[in-house]
Amino acid sequence: MAIVLGPNQYGKAEVRVVAVDRSTPRHTFVDLNVSSSLRGDFTAAHTSGDNAHVLTTDAQKNTVFAFARDGVGTPEEFGLRLARHFAGSYDWISGARVAVESYGWDRITVAGRPHDHAFSRTGDEVRTAVVTVDGSGPGRTAHVLAGLTGLVVLKTTGSEFRGFPRDRYTTLAGTDDRVLATAVTARWRYTGTDADELPFDELFTGVRTTLLETFASTHSLALQQSLHAMGEAVLERFPHIAEIRMSMPNKHHFLQDLSAYGLANTPEGGAVVYHADDRPYGLIEGSVLRDDVPSAEIAWQGTPGFC
Ligand SMILES: O=c1[nH]c(=O)c2[nH]c(=O)[nH]c2[nH]1
Description:
Strand content: 35-45%
Bound molecules: uric acid
Pathway: Purine metabolism; urate degradation; (S)-allantoin from urate: step 1/3
CATH topology of the largest domain: Urate Oxidase
Number of strands: 10
Order of helices and strands: EEHHHEEEEHHEEEE
Keywords: Oxidoreductase, Purine metabolism
CATH architecture of the largest domain: Roll
EC number: 1.7.3.3
CATH class of the largest domain: Alpha Beta
Oligomer: single chain
Helix content: 10-25%
Largest sheet: 8 strands, antiparallel
GO biological process, one term: purine nucleobase metabolic process
């Protein structure tokens, strides 16, 4: 029996880079959180402290800032540039994973006009991109996962949940009309990496819109059904997407019992009052995929959780 080093990777996590285009008085900027991980032969560093193969995490951080100087472009393209640079930059670096979070900002409106250089954060929603490059020679592969987290949605009707089995612990009443709310995390894998074929910004907006429209227009019999419908609509509309994975917490809204104060809690004669529970929450997770596209597990390696 021998004890050996298993899979490993290392890099700089959460490099916060803000790149401002000041070339005209109307500034634009990107606000990113970039994490790099290198894969390859780093055995000696682990087993004997020999750092001859260790491209420092400090240099990885500096590379992110240096590349931002040339303009960032889309998160997907920025990730591709960085991951391609790192993978094969030394013989022993066989692959790289670059994860990019992109934070949105809106212009502040002053006297009815969007301001040139003052902004407000758009909220908790974050656009994500994860690029994985594997290999350095002609057999090199690259994968792009685009996505979003924190897309909080709610519908006040058009949602039912009933017909479930009842064991001795089942107390939930079935309902044909409830509030349905969730915070969508979604990641989708493109079939290619070519920015000319894949206008990443346009595709991101299109997928986001599709998720929203489908959530809104699906008469939901379960959050599971909404998740599936949302994924299916994305794959139907976007042929360059091979698969989509989603994680959707069920942000429960329970009807508040007002009877102790002698009040009814029905739509007649007043507002219907719910209490919004933040925990525990149901966690509904699933993927929707094309059955004729080969899977690419390496694209998901290092991406924690279900998606
Ligand atoms: O849409 C739902 N799916 C469930 O699996 C579930 N379980 C539960 O208690 N409420 C709900 N709602």
